Structure formats: structure tokens, C-alpha cells
Amino acid sequence: MQRAAFFSGGDAQMAAGDLGELLVPYMPTIRVPKSGDRVYKTECAFSYDSPESEGGLYVCMNTFLGFGREHIERHYRKTGQCVYLHLKRRVIEKVPGASGGALPKRRNAKLFLDLETNSDPNNDDFEYEDEAKLVIFPDHYEILLPNIEELPALVTIACDALLSAKSPYRKQDPDSWEEELQASKHAKTLVQLDNGVRIPPSGWKCSKCDLRENLWLNLTDGSVLCGKWFFDGSGGNGHAMEHYKETGYPLAVKLGTITPDGADVYSFDEEEPVLDPHIAKHLAHFGIDMLQMQVTENGLRDNDIKPRVSEWEVIQEAGVKLKPMYGPGYTGMKNLGNSCYLNAVMQAIFSIPEFQRAYVGNLPRIFDYSPLDPTQDFNTQMAKLGHGLLSGQYSKPPMKSELIEQVMKEEHKRNPVGSENPSDVFRFLVEERTQCCQSRKVRYTERVDYIMQLPVAMEAATNKDELIAYELKRREAEAARRPPPELVRAKIPFSACLQAFSEPNNVEDFWSSALQAKSAGVKTSRFASFPEYLVVQIKKFTFGLDWIPKKLDVSVDMPDFLDISHLRARGLQPGEEELPDIAPPIIIPDDAKDRMTNHFVESLDIDESSVMQLAEMGFPLEACRKAVYYTGNLGAEVAFNWIIAHMEEPDFAEPLVIPAFGEVASSGAAVFGAVGLDNQPPEEMVAIIISMGFQRNLAIQALKATNNNLERALEWIFSHPELEEETEPALDMMDMENNANANILAETGSEGPRIKDGSGRYELFGFISHMGTSTMSGHYVCHLKKEGRWVIYNDLRVCASERPPKDLGYIYFYHRIPS
Q: The UBA domain covers which part of the protein (predicted)?
């Protein structure tokens, strides 16, 4: 590297004309950030280096991408961009004064970068000094800023705009978008009925539906009613709004938010949250003393809750002094607001060697083949994340990582071309045996899955007497409007959950090809193969009879060692007779009025189990029904891909409307599997396969090869991976460059199946736990077993676990025990 030339101050200062001449060749490449441009000035595109890192951050003056010292040369060689703005924030520990304390705090005029970092600029123990300079490659000429008189106007404007731009990584400040609440026009003149209503301090429920969450107290007549329903399944049934429409009473306060400082008040008439300057008087009318109220999640005052060890405390191991852990593999992740679940999952999968090898082992190649904007490339960002978690560079105190070097060496030996898809370690085949109860004939089918979902066998609870006694006490407390008793959690044996998984399930509206009519049918699932890593989900999230999502707060004694060899599929057995391979008959409507109801008998059936799996993820129920219907009941995974592809559509959550027979040919053909008039596959089927990430002509080829059978077409694609790379031979060089990185992990050699079968014996190495009442709220943490001990990953906090709550987990990770 050549010696840098500094053009600022002293003898090194150059005339304005000299600087202008120096920059003339690069002026066409220097851009001024516009509205909508992303300026990555706080974090490197390939690492988590920032202006506070030792080498600072280089921001390209053309693409506005940021690069750390280790990656700037790669971008220069790849793009030929020469001019970068180098940002550096120096953190200097303050020198103690003569009296032994720190020097007096003073405003640091050298702090001018608008950065969002983990450091506190107002910290009394450190001083911060910012530095910005232009760097010109390849000679590394440096021009210190500000240098307004010497620099051309365009360069000065571009530098100023870049320095003042907001980082795309910055979390939006709630204060920047939350409007200041205004006093309601009804507050001063609100009429309150003298009807003798008194609101108790606890035990509230909606007077129309008995809901106990999201409750609102109408400040005119004292009615307690539920709020509106939200698309994620939270909220209520909208009875508070209905009451306003019937009575015109405008103001309501949310129960559970009342504190001595105020409360959440909503104006139905003004259709927005408002302030009520007279809230204390309005609440006192119904016997509520604001000074005695505290915010709680469930609407109870803090003094009303008996002290007990809650789910939040047990899972996070509160009350125990945990030893922090640092270094490679013990790096925490910042919570960006709703990212705790993603944080927990990433910690779990990057503890798996196959993911380490695929992303961190292939890191140089992934980075070299990344697209021009690596911030938008999945593989690049996964490699960046994996390196950040495993290297130890971002874990304090910092440590050199031998783990990274070891992983990269192993990957080079094992898999130099990077052909392994790490998610295949979770992949397994499920054999589904469907039997007609009347004819006793059977049908065997196979499907791919990645997770074992275990139902919660509530009927098998071992503490039923305690549960019954608790329920009686709870009802008595509710009737007497007393605080509820201490919670008793159901204790469920894992063996009972496994037994429930293996038992036959009734098939709704089963059409028997043997009888050519509807009949009773049962379906049993078994493992046609066992995965390298088994992911087990305890189905704690379910729906009540009122379709309101709820969580089962249960304790399941999950085993450290698991043997599911007895669930191995056996295939067609001697003496069993297969159901004929006959499709249901087509019913053509005689009357146009019947077009919406007469179709294939079997096609109208919707797999409710798949619908529930999707709904438990938080998607609207009607959208889940549409997804399962339009993907031909092929399972939750295929339906999930349909949801991702259609969730931006305006009618996404609208009720399912069955298309009329003879309506848009492509749509009808897709649903019913009919062949297009021009012998082309139905367009809707093609769209479904494309939404899963495959090329259009590959989708058409697969459908033609399987007579437009969507399920068989997907299997055909997976069994012909070599054709995926031949589908677009006419791609230009830019497309090839942008897609090269995606192919690194997508390539699959002709040798070796994607299903890695083996023993059915496993050992637990991690689990993810959820705290809260809904999948759309609460908090997630991860426990992993590393180097023979359990470690808790709670966002940024990584500590040695003292009491891992294995019985309260939501998702469990097992690895196969070698035979």
C-alpha cells in the first residue's frame, strides 16, 4: 500500500486548483444522495465493522455502501469505484483529574457524525472524536474534511448530504412518528350516568362475550367491553365499538393502563387516541382511584397478584446471578424491536456444523460472488451473520477465533464447490397411510417435511386433581371479584404427546375411490426417513371454540435422549389392498345459480390441519384457508409459499370465494387440475411453482412431465436439480453475476440424495422458549448446550445457564446419535 497523501493543513495543503484537478477524473462517479437512497454509513455490508472499529468505515461516493477495512479492496476491484468517504469515531478514555475523579464534563465539538452506535456520547468516562476524509483508490490519497474552499462544489454537497443522511439500519424513533395526543373535545362536557356502576379493581371481562383481554371502560355508563379484532388474531370482538354505535357514548379508557400518571383513552367519535384532562374525576365516578392503580398486562393491580415464579422469570432464569460468556460462539444479537424470535433461531442454527460450513466455511467465495448490492443478498448476509456470531470479534472482551479458521479449513476439505444446502439436515420424508374405514383399502403417499409437530395431550396431565382444584378456586374468585389464585400449570408427559402424534386421525369428508363415494377415513403419519437434526415443535398455540387464539401454559418433560425408531414407516404390508387410483368425478352445474357450489367433490375440501398450522404463525384465518385451497391441500409448507407470494394483495385476508365453473380458465384449471386448451399447464399452477423460487420454464416443464399434477411436479423438480441451471441460458452477464451467489448453496451434485436417512436416536442440544399469550407478542430466548454446559441467549445477553427450563420450551433441537 502506498503512503497516503494528506491534503489538509501545514505543508501538505494543496491549492484549490490542485484538488480540483485531482478529483476531475472521478467527478462523474460522485453522486449526491437523493431521497430514497440508502446510505450505509454505520455498518459494513460484509461485516459488523462501524466507524468505531479500528479501521473505521469506508462509504462509496457512488453506491453509498459501507465497507470495513478488510472489505474495501474487494469492492474497489469489483466495481472500479475510486472515491470513498472514510468515517472514524475515536473513543478516548478520560484521564482522571488531580482529585481522583474524571475531568469536568464538557461538550465535545469534535463529535459531528450522526451515527447510531452502542456507545453513549454523553458517557462521563469517555470522550469521542469524529473524523471524516475522502480517500481515493488505488493510491489511497486522503483529503481531510471539512475542506470547503479547496473542494469542488459537487463534492462538498455530496459529502454534506452523506454525512447528514439517516442510516437504513437506524430504528425509527417513536417520537418522530407518534403524534402528540390532543385533548378530546368531549372531555370537558362529558356526561356520566348516575347508574350506580362501580368497577372492581380486578376480575374484569367483556359484558357481551366474557373476553378478559383488551377491555375498555366506557366513561359514560361504565360498560366494560372488548376492543376491535386485529388481523393477527389479537384484540377482541369489537363490542366496545358496537356499543358506541348504539349509544353514541364517545370516550373509553383501556383497563390495565390506568396509573397515577394517566391512562389510554380513545374517542370513538374523533376516531383516535386522545387526552382526557379530567380522567381522574371520570374514573372516580365509577369508584376507581387512579393513585392506587398500576399498569399490568392482565388488568390486575400489582398488589393483587400473589408473588409466584412466572413463565417470564423461569425461562429467563430471573433471580439467579448468571455468569456472562464471551468469545467465539457466545456473541449476542441486538433486539431491533421484534427480532427476538429471529435472534433465537439464528443462534440455534449457527450452532449446527452444516450451517457453519455452508455460510462461514464458504465466506470468501460468497463475498467474492455477491451481487453489486450485497446488503440485499440472502447468502451474503447469512455469511456475515454467521461470521459475526462465530468469530468472537464482536463479543466483549474480544478474542481471536480459532473456530472460524477451523470451520473454513474443514469446509475446504469437505466441500470445495459449496454444493451443500444446510437446510437439508432438517429434511425428512413422511409416509402418510390413509385407510377407507368401510372398504379397509389403503393409500400410501410421501411428502417432505422439516419439523415434527407434537400435539399437547392435555387429557394426560399427571396433576389433574390440582388442576381441578385450581379451576374451582379461579371460578370462585371470579364470582366474588377477588384476585385469581396462584396458577397451577398442567404437567404433561412427553410420552403422551408422542402417542398422540402417532395415533390415527380422522379425515374430514374423505372420498373413497374404492366406493366412488364419501366415506369415513383415517390417516396415520410415520417417518419414511429420519433427519440428521430433528426439530420438534410443541403445539402450544391453538384456537378456542370462539376462534380466539390462545396459548397452552403447560410443562412437558422433554427428554435429553429421544428414540423414535418405532415410528419408522413400513410401507404397504402383506394383506393390505391399495385404493384404486381414480379421481373424483366432475360435476357440471345445470344452473348458473349453482356455479359457486358445484365442483370436484374432493377439491372443495380444505385441510384444516394445514390451515391451523398457518394460523398459528399469525396469518389471517381466511388467508390461510385460501392458501391451502389454492395449493390443492399439498400441506402447510406449499401453502406458506403461496401466502408469502400473495400477502401484499388487497384481498389477501378476504373470505375465500370459490371460483365458478367455467370462470377464468386458468384459475379453474389450477384449482381442479384440468388441462389447458392449448395443452399448456394451468397458469395458476405455474404461478404457484414460480412463487416457490423456480424459473417459469422449469415449472412448465415439470407440470407437462407429470400431467399437471402439482405435487408430482414439485417432486419432479427436486429429483432433477441439474435442470434448474439450464432453464435460463440467455441470461446476460449482469443477471449471472447477481444470481451467482444464490447458486453457491443451491447447487446440488448429482450424487447423493437430499434426504439423509439414518438412526432414529437423538440427543437434545437446544430449545427456544416463548413468554407471553400470543405468537404475535411476548419474548423469545434460546438455550443451547455447548462444550457440555447449557448457555442462555437472551438477545445481546449471553450467560451460562444455571437452571435451563427444558419443560417450558416451544421448539426443540435434537441431533442424531451416531450408531
A: 605-646, 680-720
State the alpha helices, DSSP H only, in 53-138. Answer: 72-79
Encode pLDDT of 6-33 as tens digits: 344 333 444 445 777 888 899 999 999 9
Task: Give me the pLDDT at residue 137, please.
Answer: 93
Q: What is the pTM of this model?
A: 0.67
Cell 444470481 belongs to residue: 739
| Cα–Cα distance, 491 to 472 (Å, whole number) | 18
The answer to the question of whether 278 is labelled as a binding residue is no
Cell of 75: 469492492
Distance of alpha carbon 218 from alpha carbon 254, whole angstroms: 9
Q: Please state, in angstroms and as integers, the Cα–Cα distance from residue 109 to each residue in 85, 112, 122, 657, 742, following that order.
A: 20, 7, 12, 64, 46
**Is 508:601 a contact under the CB 8 Å cutoff?**
no
Tell me which residue has cell 447528514.
Answer: 164
Catalytic: 71?
A: no
* Catalytic choice (44, 60, 82, 340): 340
**Helices 665-672 and 683-691 meet at what angle, rounded to 10?**
70
Q: Known binder of ligand: residue 782?
A: no
When pLDDT is averaged across residues 814-818 and rounded to a whole number, the result is: 95
* DSSP character string of 446-466: EEEES-EEE---GGG-TTHHH
C-beta of residue 743 within 8 angstroms of C-beta of residue 725: yes
When the pLDDT of each residue in the chain is averaged and rounded to a whole number, the result is 78
Cβ atoms within 10 A of the Cβ of 443, count? 19
Q: Tens of pLDDT along 463-514?
A: 999 999 998 998 888 788 777 788 889 999 999 999 999 999 888 778 888 8
3-state secondary structure of 279: helix
Return the bridge partners of 171, or none: none
Q: Residues of the chain with pLDDT > 90: what percent?
A: 40
Residue written as grid cell 390461510 = 624
Indicate the pairing of strand 554-556 with strand 490-492: parallel
Mind giving me the DSSP string for 379-391? HHHHHHHHHHHHH
Q: Which residue has the higher pLDDT, 675 or 346?
A: 346
490: amino acid identity, one letter: A
Is 340 an active-site residue? Answer: yes
> Does 209 count as an annotated binding residue?
yes
The DSSP string of 314-365 is HHTTTTS-PPB--STT-------SS-HHHHHHHHHHTTSHHHIIIIIITHHH
Rounded Cα distance between 659 and 661, Å, is: 7
Q: What are the φ/ψ torsions at residue 391 (nearest 5 degrees)?
A: -75, -30
Q: pLDDT tens, 211-261?
A: 877 889 999 999 999 887 654 445 678 899 999 999 999 999 988 788 777
How many distinct helices (H) and strands (E) make up the chain? Answer: 22, 26
Looking from the CA of 518 toward its CB, the CA atoms found within 13 Å total: 10
For residues 59 and 66, give the distance between their C-alpha atoms in angstroms, rounded to a whole number: 4
**Count of C-beta atoms within a 10 Å radius of residue 386:** 25
b/e map of 330-352 (b: 16 or more CB within 10 Å)?
bbbbeeeeeebbebbebbbbbbb
Q: Which residue has the higher pLDDT, 585 or 106?
A: 585
* Set 278, 285, 720, 779: catalytic member: 779
For cell 473454513, the residue is: 408
239 assigned ligand-binding residue: yes
Rounded Cα distance, 594 and 546, in Å: 31
| φ and ψ of 607, to 5 deg | -70, 100
